Please model this.
Amino acid sequence: MAPVYALTALNTMAFITLFLVFLSVSGLVFWALYRLIPDALNQRMHIFSPQAASGAKPWSERFKPVIHGILLRLSPLAASAQASEALSWRLIHAGAKHSKSDRLLMYLAGKTLATLLLPALTALFFWLKDGRLNTTSQFFCVVLAASAGYYLPDLILNRLIARRRRRLFRAFPDALDLMRVCVQAGLSLDAALDRVGREMALASPELSEEFSLTSLELRAGLARADGLRHLAQRVNLKEIDALASMLVQADRFGSSVAESLQVHSEALRTQRRLAAEEAAAKLPVKLLVPLVFCVFPALLLVLIGPALISLWHNFQPASVLP
Model:
């Protein structure tokens, strides 16, 4: 009895020790990330500090490129500059509001931590619950946890991109109608973008943010064609890309912007209606599998079950009395 009690106490102490080590390492990592990625208020306050006046960079800015390079080497998806640029644009399409280096740093740090922590926690679980699975099964589960930690951030990122595109596509025709009304009322295209960005803040925050960024770029002196192309690149929708090309051509050749916006909004509304009709047409096919395998068996059991029980009792041979 004493050896079993000693082994249980040893496992408990080992678990507590590993848990404390995990908390300490996680706290240090999150503290370092918080220090390396300051918010906008801290960055503005640093401008007025004596270090900024003397031209010296803080230690967080000096060590950020080193950690960024280490994380880039740990992630094969961002091993090259081209892949890093593509990953940065994917994060922009998902709605990331940080700078390019901060976006990549946070994403790669989260991916690296998930790839390392999930198999470590799985191995710790098997070590505490020893004897339930053999060594091959435990190794397979650890590899599966590492694969899940590596690919899970990509799946989450793809889902965020698809959801943001869907929201932008649904709100875009209404924004074009509002922009057409503003242009017909006498506002310029730059003022119409600013007005629509403020009016769409409640209906579609994503589209309002994109229009506000485009308006800020135009106010800063960027050419209208470049600002519209930047809008199309950030949103990554072919409908908005077509709108940017149409507005650039209308501005270059002097055609009516209001009529162009009206035609484009009607085309987008038609596409939205066709997409809804397509989703409605796919619904019976998608409901076929749960109906056949879940609803129909239960319905048949409720309807035919009592009749089968009655038939079984009626056709059962009578017992012979002794």
User: Anything to note?
Assistant: Residues 1-10, 52-56 have pLDDT under 50 and may be disordered.
